[in-house]
Amino acid sequence: MKSTVPLASRVHGTVRIVGAGLLGSSIGHALSAKGVDVALADASPAQLRLAIDYGAGRASEGTDDPSIVVVAVPPDVTAEVIERELAAYPRAVVTDVASVKLEPLRALRERGVDLTHYIGSHPLAGRERGGAISARADIFVGRPWVVCRDEETTSADLALVEGLALELGAMPLEMTPEEHDQSVALVSHVPQLIASLLAGRFVDAPDGSLRLAGQGVRDTTRIAASAPELWVQILGANSAPVVDVLDALTADLTAVADALRAPGAPGARRAVADTIRRGNDGVERLPGKHGQNRRFESVVVMVDDTPGQLGRLFGELGELEVNVEDLRLEHSPGAQFGLAEISVVPSAVRRAIEGLEARGWKIASMTND
């Protein structure tokens, strides 16, 4: 099939995607929308048909000659599929989007596979639910896309993979497989475990306790809805870095628990305060909008739970020339209103508050973000 790629596209020719789940289908949707010829393959005929029906691409054919092959399969079969694709398409650059990079690379090297045209990569994007039905073309926009090149990687092959990431709106970032796996253990894999462990405490909690849950606990446990089958594979493949972080957290938790067992003892209050303060310092290091460490202030507005109210709020903020840097919504059970926490630059706080109050909005509070 002849490609109809626009001249400005960074991706040319056919892109073969093996695995029509969340990431594979999302890549397919984004590329297809730009006119790229996307050939899909999946071990599950039903999953493949579903992805095609939703518009993620067409079924792969035996005559395909892809320029890039994207392997988007579960971690326990990633190395096997990469080996097969390298053999089947020797002229293509093969990359994968698995969330663990070192283990598949070790397996491929042990098998003696020629890795000249293989580049491991990983988009830091996803959703709590998987499958082709959950795919979205925009999930990569503004997200980091780690590219793990090595001494065998040619500049032309690297340009293809980084061009793919850029075409999807992601931000390419080069790392070694070791750096990648240690990093995701800290910022992705351990947070998943912490969220799951905390949410697991809700199973036997009294209903009255859960009725008190606010946005803080919902934010903390949001990712606990993730698929157990996938995470068993991810955590098993990256176990050593994950255990290192868990051991350090265990020591921290023990120290805080010891302090709280005797809160009046000398140094106990300081130990707790230092724990909270260190958390403050860590949060401040997290990149914000556009990767900046710029801090914002939050204006919390009460919004009636009726159609059109949130749109009206955004419209009036636009009239006030107040840019919304971030937004969080909280709904109290049984209440007929929600709280919209809007992050703005400090210089816009007074203008936002005075302008919204003049238009009849109720300001619940203002906090540092």
Characterise this structure.
The chain has 13 helices and 12 strands. With 369 residues, it is α/β, with parallel strands linked by helices. Strands 3-2-1-4-5-6-7-8 form an 8-stranded mixed β-sheet, sandwiched between helices. Strands 10-11-9-12 form a 4-stranded antiparallel β-sheet. Helix 6 (177-200) crosses helix 10 and helix 10 (239-261) packs antiparallel against helix 11. The relative contact order is 0.08. Residues 1-7 have low confidence and may be disordered.
Write the layout of secondary structure elements.
Blueprint: E1 14-18, H1 22-33, E2 37-41, H2 45-53, E3 58-59, E4 68-71, H3 78-88, E5 93-96, H4 102-110, E6 118-123, E7 144-148, H5 155-167, E8 171-174, H6 177-200, H7 207-210, H8 215-221, H9 228-237, H10 239-261, H11 268-285, E9 297-304, H12 309-319, E10 326-331, E11 337-344, H13 349-358, E12 362-368
Parallel strand pairs: 1-2, 1-4, 2-3, 4-5, 5-6, 7-8
Antiparallel strand pairs: 6-7, 9-11, 9-12, 10-11
What key phrases describe this protein's structure?
8-stranded mixed sheet; 4-stranded antiparallel sheet; alpha/beta; 369 residues; Alpha-Beta Plaits; 13 helices; 6-phosphogluconate dehydrogenase C-terminal fold; Rossmann fold; 12 strands
